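ingest -> validate -> predict -> emit
validate: passed (alphabet ok, no gaps, 219 aa)
predict: started
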Amino acid sequence: MSATVYRVGDLIYAVHSTSFDYRAAIQWFEINAVTHQVVDTGFIGDPVLDLFYPSIAANASGTVVIACNGCSLSTFVSCYAFTGEKVNGTLTFGSSLLLKAGVTSLTGIGRWGDYSAVSVDPVDQSRFWTLTMYPATSTKWSTQLTELITSPLQLRIARAGTNVVISWPSAATGFQLQSKTNLSFGTWTAVTQAQIVTNNQFRVSLAITNAANFFRLAK
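emit:
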């Protein structure tokens, strides 16, 4: 069993390990700190994975992130996260996000360190930091630190001489920059120029042309 709480204004967010449909699962709570009434609660489970050692944090906009471990008979202990938002007044969590896949089973002598934490970035409330753990070898565990961006990604475009520089946060890995010349028709084309990381930003430099160009990020 494990449990954590996190307070934002007059709301307390809490999470603990439980069982649901015969698997280890997570139960979360949203509690009014003034009246001590439960505002909302729910379960997070998985048809295959056991989920355990959860932690929780929320920002002033009502975005909630839960981090935890998960495993099954065919999946080594791995690190996962869930992001929740208010939908029609109800806190709703999306699908699991794999943060770090376990690489082996932990079979050696020694205690598993039950470390799990989520923190809101003090500079940018749309960014969360998770600390989870996974077995690195059969006798040792390691910690995984992950930055999650919960706000919509925004491209920035700035002129640099005869080029334009398109940039977005480097924490948003796995995205492909695409372009097209007309939003009404045509297909999006992958931008093949190399992405350079500078000051925690992906940057792509393109020559200025006389034609209109539109850009987007796609998975």
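The domain at 3-149 is CATH 2.120.10.10 (Neuraminidase).
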